[in-house]
Amino acid sequence: MTDAELFEAILLDNEQAFNQLFERHWLKVYTVAHKYVRDEELALEIAHDIFLNIWNKRQELKINSFKSYVITAASYHAIRKRQTAKAIPVQYVDDYEYTEDAAYAISGRHEHNQGEVNIDEREINDTVNHLLTELPKRCREIYYMSRRDNLSITEIAERLDISKRTVENQLTIALKHLRTSLKVIILFSCFFK
């Protein structure tokens, strides 16, 4: 059975179909999560949470590509776990005095937060790059030439010796894939808050 057929069976509360999808995809989910968190137990926990959430919310989910859905979920969930693990605990101090050192420490926090913003941007770029690996090589190459190298459709067509129409079609495929996958990430941000 295809993933889509198995997911349809899951909507009818078929646990065997769920187990088949789990067996088929859990290693991919675990591998993606582990890439981000670099911790076996945490990656296993993420994989377990994702599949548990799919089972528990199966009637609410609209999944076009199960593989893309769970891989994107693994990326998103792992990034969130990693950010949570990096959070600095706040400690309460009874007799805290405001000093210049304290003021410097507080103003230094802004620079730390800017660093976190840079890390977030890098993680988003990592996620986009990971999503692009699911595309055919030529499609990926055209996307990078357009977005990374800032080449026009005409320039790409000339460099690759293909028609402008082909370039447009490949860019459309890449952008549609990213849009769909990123919608899944946004959906997961609602479920995992």
TrEMBL record:
<dbReference type="InterPro" id="IPR039425">
    <property type="entry name" value="RNA_pol_sigma-70-like"/>
</dbReference>
<dbReference type="InterPro" id="IPR013325">
    <property type="entry name" value="RNA_pol_sigma_r2"/>
</dbReference>
<dbReference type="Pfam" id="PF04542">
    <property type="entry name" value="Sigma70_r2"/>
</dbReference>
<dbReference type="InterPro" id="IPR013324">
    <property type="entry name" value="RNA_pol_sigma_r3/r4-like"/>
</dbReference>
<comment type="similarity">
    <text>Belongs to the sigma-70 factor family. ECF subfamily.</text>
</comment>
<feature type="domain" description="RNA polymerase sigma factor 70 region 4 type 2">
    <location>
        <begin position="130"/>
        <end position="178"/>
    </location>
</feature>
<dbReference type="GO" id="GO:0003677">
    <property type="term" value="F:DNA binding"/>
</dbReference>
<keyword id="KW-0731">Sigma factor</keyword>
<dbReference type="InterPro" id="IPR007627">
    <property type="entry name" value="RNA_pol_sigma70_r2"/>
</dbReference>
<keyword id="KW-0804">Transcription</keyword>
<dbReference type="InterPro" id="IPR014284">
    <property type="entry name" value="RNA_pol_sigma-70_dom"/>
</dbReference>
<dbReference type="Pfam" id="PF08281">
    <property type="entry name" value="Sigma70_r4_2"/>
</dbReference>
<dbReference type="InterPro" id="IPR013249">
    <property type="entry name" value="RNA_pol_sigma70_r4_t2"/>
</dbReference>
<dbReference type="GO" id="GO:0006352">
    <property type="term" value="P:DNA-templated transcription initiation"/>
</dbReference>
<dbReference type="GO" id="GO:0016987">
    <property type="term" value="F:sigma factor activity"/>
</dbReference>
<keyword id="KW-0805">Transcription regulation</keyword>
<dbReference type="InterPro" id="IPR036388">
    <property type="entry name" value="WH-like_DNA-bd_sf"/>
</dbReference>
<protein>
    <submittedName>
        <fullName>Sigma-70 family RNA polymerase sigma factor</fullName>
    </submittedName>
</protein>
<feature type="domain" description="RNA polymerase sigma-70 region 2">
    <location>
        <begin position="21"/>
        <end position="83"/>
    </location>
</feature>
